[in-house]
Amino acid sequence: MDKRPPMPSRDSGGSFSLNNPDDGTPIKEMFTLGDGLLLITEKCTYRMQVADQIDPGRKNPALPPNFQQKLLDHGTASELLCRTLLQAKVMFQKEFQSIDIDRAMQLSFDALSDLVATHEAAEAFISAERASIDKAQSLERKDASQTIPAVGNVRGHCKSFAQKADHFVVSLLGIVRLFYPEMRKKSWDDFREMVKSKYGEGDPLYEVSELTVPFLQLIRNARDCLEHNNQKGVITADFEPQLDGTIALPSIEIDFRKSSLGRGPISWFMERTTKGLLDSFEMIVAHTCNKNMQPFGGLPMSIGILSEDHQKAWHVRFAYGTYNQDGQFVPCG
Known about the structure:
The protein has helices at 51-54, 79-91, 101-138, 154-179, 188-199, 204-227, 266-291, 308-314; strands spanning 27-33, 36-41, 45-50, 66-72, 234-237, 240-241, 247-248, 251-256, 259-265, 302-305, 318-323, 329-331. With 333 residues, it is of the alpha+beta class. A hairpin with a 2-residue loop joins strand 1 and strand 2. Helix 3 (101-138) packs antiparallel against helix 4 (154-179) and helix 6 packs across helix 7. The protein is globular.
């Protein structure tokens, strides 16, 4: 009688497919993140772990050979994913940077997750705003009074949105601190002053900080103000009737510490913030990596903008490379 222990199913040959009937698009990117493997299709992002990661002692021979889990409904067709996580994958390479690459990638994934949450919060508010308008317009008018739409708890919506946006800002600041340890426990304003002192006002990284820091600090201050229920620092309002007979959309106004934002629609503020976070991540990461790039094989390497064909193939806008005699940027990789 064969007394050998049963061979774990994980040791047998086989294949697997992503079990998501709502996807069906091919895998476009694949790389390790933490203790798992990220698989990115055009539509979604998945995490896969093999059985030996779950059961390194091989105590359960019946354990499936791998485990898969959908993380995000965002893939290579998503601008949010491409300009954060995939851009980070191209920038954070040990051949070019001396920072903790694994930590940088984890922070980039955290930033993406927070950006997705921010985007979803904005979409939810805009949807609620639209629904409240449609509902008010559908009501039968029985007298001379006018029914005004109402989203309800707009301050709560703004608070939740600002928290998610600020989580993104914290992750991005964590990436900056990997390059500049002296930034530990310091703010975005300190980052701008550090860059000015280190590189000068004419440096591209300083110009980027001039564009991004006031916006990133605005998000931080707005969150602080909303969490502490400072009614004067951040003023929010639901739909409001105006003197001219029109109905103003739900609005927000910020004037707290050194951050200010004139009164405007909350929906506009949320959309603008999501785009601003995306732009800030891409530009700060690219320029910070360019400033701290390590020598590579004696070649004059730099970070440049990819051609449209390369952008479609790589799913990012910036990469390491060099310029040929005709002044064209040739990516490395």
